[in-house]
Amino acid sequence: MNRRVFLRRAAWMGGALLAGTPLAAAARVADGRKVRWKMVLAWTRDMELFKRGAIRFARRVSLLSESRLAIDVSVAPEGMTPSDVLGMLERDEVHCSHCFARDLAPRSPALEWFSSVPFGLTPAGYDAWLYGMGGAALWKQACEPLGFYPRSMGDTGPVRFGWSNRNLNGLDDFKGLRVPAQGVVSDVLARAGALPVLPEDGTPTVSALASGRLDAASWHGLFHERELGFHKAARMSWGPAWQAPAGRMMLCLNRKAFEALPASLRIIINASAVEEDHRLSADFTARNARAMAALVTGDSSILRGIAPEALTAFRRWSHEAAGDRAASSTLARTVRDSYLKALGELNAGKE
């Protein structure tokens, strides 16, 4: 596919998300002028695939724009949270970022549904909801008050519940379990009697698991977990991925900076985000599958399953907890209703 055809096919991506963008603002950067952006990633240095995806996106933008738009990519300084990165966007200190929407849910509760919720949409389901079932317009609505436009850009795929040296068969096994969790997942585990703690970076998490300060933990899928040595810190990987059937990532575009670009550069950004959305998701799928194969080749007993009766309880509590969080705002309720409608339609006819 040549450059012109690729851009034409991808131009639709800006439709729902760019509705109402002032043409005067878009004209502030002349078509022939070269622009340089700063992109700060809300990832840590041990999140290898995440960083690769962002760098590929930046290179693609430069290539398609024939260097009219260059994006300098850097990892957020150590100790900086996703909320801190959002603050940089709001203060116009950076032009774009890459993160999980759920990390910004304290600022906009509706964002909880744009990363993953327990027993919810799979990566393919997110594609359908965002690209074809109205999810993108709601995502834009949730992010506009925060000063940025969202784009879907990658998915970790399902993440097994976690590594542990404890048996996690039935509900009683979760009582007193010290495990990193946030959002709806944290609410569910608390109802099970677990002791959720705030998630940390990958290296401190695996160290805490090895020392016994944590009883269970996961880290964005088997590839990154194996790279960091989770399988050495704990004997068993417990599934299924009830708490994270997907892990959708978000490209955040500073609204002022984006609107100041000419239409041609905005289309290139949209096109590059669409391409990287699928490329990065495929990378995670492939790497996680290879990590799974390597782990079970060494010891097939490493993979364990949580008992069905416990999963039934988790499903019920997830529905209740998500409902409680959706009640916090009108937009959150609207987003949850749209999400559940899409989930129901996509699951229709499945056993």
UniProtKB/TrEMBL annotation:
Residues 1-26 form the signal peptide. Pfam families: DctP. GO terms for molecular function: iron-sulfur cluster binding. The keyword Metal-binding applies. Keywords: Iron, Iron-sulfur, Metal-binding, Signal. InterPro entries: DctP_fam, TAT_signal, TRAP_DctP_sf. One of its GO terms (biological process) is transmembrane transport. This is TRAP dicarboxylate transporter-DctP subunit. It comes from Desulfovibrio ferrophilus.
